[in-house]
Amino acid sequence: MITTKDIRNKYVKNYPSAFCPGCGDGMVLNAMSRAVEKSGIDQKKVAAVSGIGCAAWIPSPYWKVDTLHTTHGRAIPHATGLKVGNKDLEVMVVSGDGDCAGIGGNHLLHAARNNIDLNVLMINNGLYAMTGGQVAPTTEHGEKTLTTPYGNPSQGIDICNVVKHSGASHVARWTTYHMNELIKEIERTIDIKGFSFIEVLSQCPTRTGKKEGLSGVEMLEWYRENTTKNKEEEGIYVGEIQYVERTELTEEIYEQISKRGGKPR
Amino acid sequence: MLKPGTYFMEGNEACAEGAMRAGLGLYAGYPITPASEVMNHLAKELPKTGGRFLQMEDEIASIAAVIGGAWSGLKSMTATSGPGFSLMQENIGYAVMTETPCVIVDVQRAGPSTGQATKPGTGDVMQSRFGSHGDYEIIALAPNSVQEMFDFTVRSFNLSERYRTPVVLLADAGVGHMREKFTIPEKVKTIERKRPKEVDKEFFDTHEEDHVPPMPDFGEGYELMVTGSTHLGDGTRDTASFEAQDRLVRRLNAKINDNREEIEDWEEMGCNRADLVLISYGSISRPVKGAVKKAREDGYDIGFFRPKVIWPSPEDRMKEIGKNSEVMLVELSLQGYRMEVERCVGSENLYIFDILNSLPTIEQVYEKIMEVIE
């Protein structure tokens, strides 16, 4: 039996946590670690790429794998070079909603179109938390943030829908309330050849919580009450959104190389 | 990839051939005039050598994929021109900070902004040095022939691997689109990055004299922490301490500055105590050299100086020249290298011949020389 302590020692580096009390980011780190453990893949071959923001700090420096902590919004194209460079790497991208759907939105679209074998976790807390709580592309209409003091005049984006229609093999949504389902879904992304995208709704007790008067736990309860696994029901749908088999970029590139007499270095 | 021999080709194609000879493993780019021929050529030829070719969604993604490719263990490169080079600046700084070897080819065109896409310019000289934010040093080379497009591409890779740093091949539309003979030698000297030995634990600091730490690949089990944040020798992010910032940034700069002698390269002719020395680089240096030769044949004491490595600049040599001779800078832009040359030779004895959009003839440069010396 592998214990929680074993998981911690095997996958988490011993640095003081930078996350606020009640934050969902540590839970995602836990889920990622358990998923890799369950999948049985070689930890040495796991690479984690992140951009800028709270979520980018989930793998860097905490996760005991090779980590590439890049520039704001650019985790996905960095990960693309890494994966195409060495197809044996299992490349995970951990990105916040601002990082992934805002400044990095174009890269997300095209990585999904390429269907490159990356596993992207977009940790969605609905705003820019590290910089103090500004409006994000995921913030809902009317919400008040630091930069929408009179309510968000824009609409939040349904990013899973965008990724789905851009051609990703695998799209799913979970929350930090659904830990077991999330672990299973991440484990699945490791098996899937193609672009995997999981939106993880995650609580920010410091920015959203304080404003709404909710603790981390109360925000988890909110996820429980406002999500549904039934597509027909009212509420935020959680579960698989898409799974289709499509050609994958890295394999195609390697095949073209070998067909033309090249030998991938 | 072409066999050793002599060919008649375009500068951009020679650059692509040089990259493959240097051991290019991954190319990522985005089409832009006048640099596209580099990627057109590599799209066809690189897979045959085992290298990966990627056309990305924009130049930001291109340089990002290049950096990712470098950490997968491959020699990586992109090619672009002004507008794309502007987009790449943030990640070039990231490559400096993370000590990621890679080559960025900038086939300069006339700017600013969209400017004239097919016309040569050298308005990116200062950008290649200072374009990204923060304190850093960088290496940039300025070729003036198709042969040098090949040779300098190889050297760019060698310098980037040697010093674990991005290197800019600062070409221009003149030399990128020029067609002439060039030779691929039987043996091309290549340099590979320093790999960790068993005892090595730190990949982001070193006490070696050259200031270059060893670099592992991803997937080797080092639990690497690569970050653009200020970091300690083992990669640990340190966003606050004076020591970390001071140690890292000073070493990154020293890596280039303390190795200047090994990096610097220039060509000169008759510069010792000449009445006038013409400084020029890139494609425009060709008619300049022609005019200097003609003036010397006509009995004038005129010198010619051409930096091949433009950053770090050959400042000591330029200062010496400035002490003993008057200087005329000839370039394809108003501001290109001007501040650096002025810094080295002083503004009192510096003449400027700047020309936009196209190369002058030998006669035009000759006339300018006569204007100055008479």
Structure write-up:
The complex is a heterodimer of chains A (265) and B (374). With 265 residues, chain A is of the alpha/beta class. In chain A, 38% of the residues lie in helices and 18% in strands. Chain A contains ten helices and eleven strands. Chain A has helices at residues 4-11, 25-39, 75-85, 97-103, 105-114, 159-166, 179-191, 205-212, 216-226, 249-259, and strands at residues 46-50, 66-69, 90-96, 119-124, 127-128, 134-135, 170-175, 196-201, 227-228, 236-237, 239-243. The model of chain A has no long low-confidence stretch (mean pLDDT 97). In chain B, strand 12, helix 10 (285-297) and strand 13 form a beta-alpha-beta unit. In chain B, helix 1 (11-22) packs across helix 2 and helix 3 (59-71) packs parallel to helix 4 (82-98). In chain B, strands 2, 3, 4, 5, 6, 7, 8 and 14 form an eight-stranded mixed sheet that branches. A five-stranded mixed sheet of chain B has the order 11-13-12-15-16, sandwiched between helices. The model of chain B has no long low-confidence stretch (mean pLDDT 97). Chain B folds into two domains: 5-184, Rossmann fold; 265-373, Rossmann fold (3-Layer(aba) Sandwich), CATH 3.40.50. Chain B contains 13 helices and 16 strands. Chain B starts with a strand and ends with a helix. With 374 residues, chain B is α/β, with parallel strands linked by helices. The relative contact order of chain B is 0.12. The chains are: A alpha/beta (265), B alpha/beta (374). Chains A and B meet through strand 2, helix 3, helix 5 and helix 10 of A and strand 2, strand 3, helix 3, helix 4 and strand 10 of B.
